[in-house]
């Protein structure tokens, strides 16, 4: 499996429903900053990271893949995954300028492509290559009905519809208004409409400060909240630890963390109850496994954040024993040869060899962006 070419690409896939917002972002497209790695035995591996489809920063990721990492990979054996991850992640010149951020997003795409290659070589879906499924069913929770930009009546209507028509029993609502009582009012309306048996998680996307969170949680505790996700600034371990100790609502976080060390800081401080690693930010599957295993050793559940919109995480979630549920946002599923699929609120287990990242020719034709002007 000698690597013969490493080619970055960028896709910008439109969000079918149009612009959506959370407390900190408004987007119209999901960016797929990816890489195709070919080997001398005729295989092609694909991996990608997820972005807000901002072309200038996507080009930085593509340049990191093509200009910085590709020369380190050409001629290497794609089977040597752990060694290659270390070679790239610890490359002195790159480590000097980027131990997180763009370098980790770029490394994520490459590491996923190398896992995709190894799974294809073995003729197995990734979850099988990793050791097989540890649960028969993987329940999905729907995030795509709970955006902050939805008016309250549309929010309630969408939640009811996805439960009654799509079979979901778990939903997540975005929160993070300047006045948190606006969020309490929206959650109360949803809880009243869906009844007591539907699981409701919340996501503030890092918006609030500690006093606002305490005020919000004091009111929200009565609404049976499954978790409050990223209530405060992503790196603030101390404030999350204090909040976790002061409220009955479990704290979830991790989608903005770049390393196993960052997760260790939160877990060591008892600042997180649900670990939410994401392969697209964590420099790939290799580091994700370290995080998931560390959380599992502490008996913490792992619920991946889907910066990949689930294509890779569905494999990791069927496999890893700390995971029983997975986020669902179906924005880019049609871009892939084997798209994620849901049946009665549960993920369908992938069957094709690989990591679920091979784009369709149609997507490459319709959504590709030039790497340079
Ligand atoms: Mg989130």
From TrEMBL:
Query: What are the record keywords, sorted?
Result: Magnesium, Metal-binding
**Provenance organism:** Hephaestia caeni
The protein's name in its UniProt record: L-alanine-DL-glutamate epimerase-like enolase superfamily enzyme
- Residues annotated as transmembrane: none
* Needed co-factor(s): Mg(2+)
What InterPro entries does the database record attribute to this sequence?
A: Enolase-like_C_sf (IPR036849), Enolase-like_N (IPR029017), Enolase_C-like (IPR029065), Mandel_Rmase/mucon_lact_enz_CS (IPR018110), Mandelate_racemase_C (IPR013342), Mandelate_racemase_N_dom (IPR013341), RHMD-like (IPR046945)
* One record GO biological process: amino acid catabolic process
Keyword Hydrolase attributed = no
List the SUPFAM superfamilies hit by this protein, alphabetically. Enolase C-terminal domain-like, Enolase N-terminal domain-like
Q: DNA-binding: is it a keyword of this entry? A: no
Describe the location of the Mandelate racemase/muconate lactonizing enzyme C-terminal domain by residue ranges. 152-250
* Listed Pfam families: MR_MLE_C (PF13378), MR_MLE_N (PF02746)
User: GO molecular function of the protein, one example?
Assistant: hydro-lyase activity
Q: What is the lineage of its organism?
A: Bacteria, Pseudomonadati, Pseudomonadota, Alphaproteobacteria, Sphingomonadales
